[in-house]
Design a protein that fits this description.
With about 500 residues, the protein is an all-alpha fold. The chain is built from 25 helices and 2 strands. It has a two-stranded antiparallel sheet with strand order 1-2. The longest helix is centred in the last third of the chain and has 41 residues. It is globular and about 60 Å long.
Amino acid sequence: MTATQNIDEETPLLTNGQSKKPTPLPWTQFSIVLFLQLAEPLTSNVIYPFMPQLIRDLGVTNGNDAAVGYYVGMMQSIFFLTQAFTVLHWARLSDTIGRKPVILVGLSGLTVSMYCFGLSRTFWGLVLSRSLSGALNGNIGVIKSMMAELTDETNLAQAYAYMPIAWSTGCTVGPIIGGSLSRPHEQYPWLFGDSEFHKKYPYFLACSIPATFSAVAWLVTYRYLKETHSNPTPVKQFLGIEKKPLIDDDSDSDSDSVDSQKAKEERPGSLRSLLTPRVTVAATNYAFLSLVDIAFRAIQPVFLSTPIELGGLGLSPARIGSVLSMFGILNGFFQVFFFAAIHNRFGSKRTFMMGIASAVPLFVCYPLMSVIAQRQGLSFLVWVLVYAQIALSIGISLSYGSIFIFITAASPNRASLGATNGLCQVRAHWMTVSVMRAIGPAAANSLFSVSIEKGLLGGWLVYYVLLATTFVTLFVGTFLPQKLWTQN
């Protein structure tokens, strides 16, 4: 098989074996979507650098550093858990009333919850804030649907290559904000040393930045974002506040009948109709990808903050923030300039499998860094491994770009894109007894803590389990088709 034949078989940029000229992206609306998409990764990543220290400050571990992972994992999971209960409903609602109203609600939830998080002084206050954030935010599936509606088969891969810009920016700026602006009265005593407010709420400043950004994104969305849904039901009619106008003009009856028939044909399918084999395959792979990725991201800040004698690196929140931000910089550059080329060369399935395979050396780096740090301290070799791990983690993003394309192709029709994306999100949360994004962080960090406390397999049990999970994910990936499905 020639390289050209291979591309014809696997890439979504070609249809019926013939090349098409890519349709130009609608850059104005596309840029607005990327801008508002930044709100979620910014609010998610800002807490990672200081979360272990925040748990210590609250005193819930009673000074036991090995137990910090339990509570950090719970805090990371609570957002995804509450989101799992609502994301499908938000996605299906967007198929009815349109994408824009649902996005506005999600941005409102992020704004309020982040301000509340910064003002929380108890563990349960933090839990309530994160729960609110997850429950009100259904944007993750809705934005993907909007992206698909702004594109066609000729430029979809190009659009998904730009999508990581927002996530990468959030992954870059979020940790920097969280690390550099937490406990400002200690880091910048010349500016905040006399501020009783910042002494009482040492993490409010860091949380207020993404909260304010979400508020600005709400205003931009309300004013400038155009609805992409082809036939949304007005919100007032959906709520029963306003009745649907009656059409009395007989001359328009035939036209109206045709439009009604067309709308009926394009109406989003029921949940049962969405549970097709191809949606199940795409959703299951998305679920396992989410588990591998979230486990790595969840353990990373806890590992970096855990004292060296307990198996970590003992870094400060500011240093953790700078380390985590490197991923965003490298990932954004790689995705924009290389994803489309890699995807077009190898196809969706092979690109997905390569990304999953990169997780193997990622998890191996953890015990290697631990051993070297215990023998040599934070030596040059440790830092080489730290940044090598960051660079390798870019590979997982390849899998995300690929699986999003599979999910879009798996949708029975374009009218069901929101529900399909939402359904895949829910299955990603609930697959294998709810251990994906909802339970994954808590399970991974709890396993990290118990491995250290009990000395299981020399404290490395967590890494063996995560490696095994990666190999299972590779096996599940073999069920993806070589050639993308076509929508009806």
